[in-house]
Fold this sequence. Notes:
370 residues, alpha/beta, Nucleotidyltransferase, domain 5, five-stranded mixed beta sheet, 14 helices, 13 strands, 19% strand, globular, disordered N terminus, binds adenosine-5'-diphosphate, binds magnesium ion
Amino acid sequence: MASPPPSKPVAALYIGLMSGTSLDGVDAVLFDGQAVQGHVHAPFPAALRDELLALNTPGADELHRAALAANGVARSYADVTAQLLEASGTRRDQIAALGAHGQTVRHRPGGFDGYTTQLLNGALLAEQTGIDVVCDFRSRDVAAGGQGAPLVPAFHRAVFGVAGRDVAVLNLGGIANLSLLFADGRTGGFDTGPANCLLDGWIARHQGHAFDADGAWAASGQVLSPLLAALLAAPFFALAPPKSTGRDLFHLDWLDAQLTPGLVPADVQATLLELTARSVADALQAQMPGATTLIACGGGARNGRLMQRLAELLPRVALQSSVAHGLPVDQVEAAAFAWLAQCFQEKRPGNLPAVTGASGLRVLGALHPA
Ligand SMILES: Nc1ncnc2c1ncn2[C@@H]1O[C@H](COP(=O)(O)OP(=O)(O)O)[C@@H](O)[C@H]1O
Ligand SMILES: [Mg+2]
């Protein structure tokens, strides 16, 4: 009797491609299902970054502009994928799939009146890379009544969870999100509010820098208590989870509406940094009062002043960098989208209904085959 032909070995490598609301560009990682085997970061071309930022706000001829920007994101993702394959000595036929987040320009979950938009031409990315592309991870959770965000808590549980301990993971991107890994096995998670998006916007306007390195400019100013109170009065902070947000809510026009004449720009920066630290610390204390450990990742974990204020506001919590747990701060979110692509290929759900509020577990993503 003829034996069946040997089945083709399943490629075990995935690539995760993440570009967050900071708009600092693309992080790409090579992920073997357990660990990151390579990482490349590339900024977006300046004109594409400007257009993606502009597309966060309603404007003229949006459909055409969004389509072209989605092509631009695909081109950037294809470039960084080629760099990653080259740098790691990997062939494209060794990659089972790319998990590609796309660029969020609107995030308004809410059933038939809601949607979430991550710009990326997945068809073009599949065409350019010759690799299966899994993208549009958030829409299915939104269709199931969820927030579509955060999607990283299940990955954080797999990588950072410790049995018997209440551990929280904080991602400081443009927006901040917490994952709550409870000792009893429950997992929570939600966006806490802005992390870097306002800090970046304010220093760009006043100093012409893309970001406030180490929070040094913020540290040179004084926190303005009335402004901080006005900002913390935004209803989003008082909402109970599930909740998620984006630049739709936290943008410079929102800040400008709270400013009074004559404020010193460095003091506003100090206040914005305090807003991030306070909103995270308050949310952690409210939702996980027994937290023993807070693991920070995302670019904001490089902001020494922000880390210092978080540590001061949370004296009973050990604040650690994700790198101490084996994952550098810039690789965690990209690794999560590689992991979500693996979930998709294996037809396993990627969302946690307790986190997003979706009506059930769902396989997340849409496939553009190579
Ligand atoms: N050395 C640093 N000091 C302060 N902030 C930093 C530093 N490095 C990166 N950042 C911040 O991190 C942001 C990028 O973080 P990232 O996790 O990539 O966010 P996103 O997921 O939104 O793209 C930058 O926009 C900047 O605000
Ligand atoms: Mg980024």
